[in-house]
Design goal:
The chain has 9 helices and 16 strands. The protein is α/β, with parallel strands linked by helices. It has 2 domains: 279 residues, Aminopeptidase; 109 residues, Alpha-Beta Plaits. It has an 8-stranded mixed sheet, with helices on both faces. It has a 4-stranded antiparallel sheet with strand order 10-12-8-13, with helices on one face. Strands 7-14 form a two-stranded antiparallel sheet.
């Protein structure tokens, strides 16, 4: 069967299974679960695989599911497809008929779409397994939204081994892109992401008597400004780097200076060597500056996800297949993003491609921002996603 014939067959099967995939997505959206707590989600995904006769293993990192669909000559290549299954601690405000019934939890990053899409893709692959070569390993992964990241833990449990995965694909909803379109970025695509936590210690007291105190609020103010020099005076102007602080907590009052100030922030960049250098510079600066002002600083960096690098050859080939399947006008080139993804752990191990799925429909008022309580998607994106991923998996 040539590419034209397999494309036609994939599109036929896509139309056959699409209504059920939409219902799967709506069920998942209505019943979201937080990272590493996706027990009902995992059970539901397993029930669909059982119904379709697709074999799998469950209980990987507690709620993860892994399986293999074998085509002809199954040892000739092993390609992996991954979907994340967890939701976010956000109260949904979409008003959808299938709005989350779990208070304070929402699929605000589209993982319901990812999981439903992968299920639809597996249905297609299973229906066509006599017509393609190799094996497709599928990964339903927990805990993408929470450190240390489900990808890291699943790799440690051997998800890329037995059989050894040669390349891996993942897709992510992209509400900045219209439905029917997809986007690719070769090379470095998404940033590393580290959490910064530090506590400045001083000697609190009456705000009218600062000469008797060691003011941790003042030290913190100097420190936040000084730490920006790590970016402005040390990072290469050709290497995007972000240092931001979003939580400063002192528990003082208008005339009360506290003993301590707690600060939380994020550090992101695209180069692992510079990342390590910056960690050392920040820690040293924080400790010495606080000491020079009479206080002290406990500075902690919680190392998060690494830089996500899309393999040049794999991504080029996937882009070509997307053009074949969707048409050139529906495939766009993406810019780098300062957001992070634990799919990066896979990209550090095997040649990878992480691409974006357009989900917006401006005419229908569907879109918004990721991690937002009013995020909505055009479910026609599921038609694009399941067929394209199957086509890429078969032809790369």
């Amino acid at each position: 069967m040539n590419n034209r014939e397999i494309k036609h067959k994939i599109k036929q099967i896509t139309q056959e299974i699409l209504p059920e995939v939409i219902e799967i997505r709506r069920h998942l959206h209505k019943h979201p679960e937080l990272s590493f707590e996706e027990y009902k989600t995992s059970k539901y995904i397993a029930s669909i695989l059982d119904k379709w006769g697709i074999k799998y293993q469950k209980g990987i990192v507690k709620t993860g599911i892994v399986g293999i669909i074998e085509g002809k000559n199954p040892t000739s290549k092993v390609i992996a497809l991954r979907a994340d299954i967890d939701a976010l601690p956000i109260t949904e405000k979409t008003g959808l008929a299938f709005e989350s019934i779990n208070e304070g939890v929402m699929h605000a990053c589209g993982h319901d779409v990812h999981s439903a899409s992968l299920l639809g893709t597996l249905y297609i692959l299973n229906k066509t397994k006599e017509e393609w070569e190799g094996s497709i390993k599928f990964i339903f992964q927990p805990g993408e939204e929470q450190l240390p990241g489900g990808a890291k833990l699943m790799i440690e449990e051997g998800v890329l081994e037995k059989p050894e995965v040669k390349q891996i694909y993942g897709q992510h909803v992209y509400p900045e892109l219209e439905v029917g379109k997809v986007g690719f970025k070769r090379g470095t695509y998404m940033a590393s992401a580290d959490e910064i936590h530090f506590t400045v210690k001083g000697k609190g007291g009456h705000g009218a008597l600062p000469h008797q105190l060691v003011d941790p609020v003042l030290i913190t103010s100097h420190l936040i400004v000084a730490l920006q020099q790590i970016v402005s005076r040390n990072a290469s102007p050709y290497l995007p780097t972000v240092l931001s602080f979003g939580d400063i907590h002192g528990s003082g009052a208008t005339n009360v200076i506290p003993n301590t100030v707690h600060v939380k922030g994020t550090f992101r960049t695209f180069d692992e060597k510079w990342r390590e250098e910056a960690h050392q510079k920040m820690k040293k600066m924080a400790e010495l500056l606080a000491e020079s002002m009479g206080g002290s600083c406990d500075f902690e960096i919680r190392k998060g996800y690494p830089v996500l690098v899309n393999d040049e050859a794999v991504t080029t080939l996937a882009t070509e297949k997307a053009i074949e399947y969707l048409g050139k006008e529906n495939v766009v080139e993406l810019n780098q993003r300062m957001t992070a993804e634990d799919f990066a752990y896979y990209s550090q191990q095997v040649p990878s491609c992480f691409y974006r799925l357009g989900t917006a429909n401006k005419e229908k008022g569907l879109g918004g921002n990721l991690h937002h309580p009013e995020l909505t998607i055009d479910e026609k994106a599921l038609e694009t996603s399941i067929g394209l991923m199957a086509y890429i998996a078969i032809n790369t």
